[in-house]
Amino acid sequence: MSQTVKTRTVSPLKVFTTFLILGATSIGGGMMAHIREAVVVREGWMSDEEFLECYGLCQTLPGLNTTNLSVLIGDRVAGGWGALAAMLAVMAPGGGIVLGLATYFLNGPAPAWTFAGLKGVAAVSVALLFTAALKVGRKLFGNSVDLQIVLLTFLCVGVFHLSLPLTLGIMLPVSLWMKRPEVAVC
Question: What confidence score (pLDDT) does residue 28 get?
Answer without folding.
Answer: 64
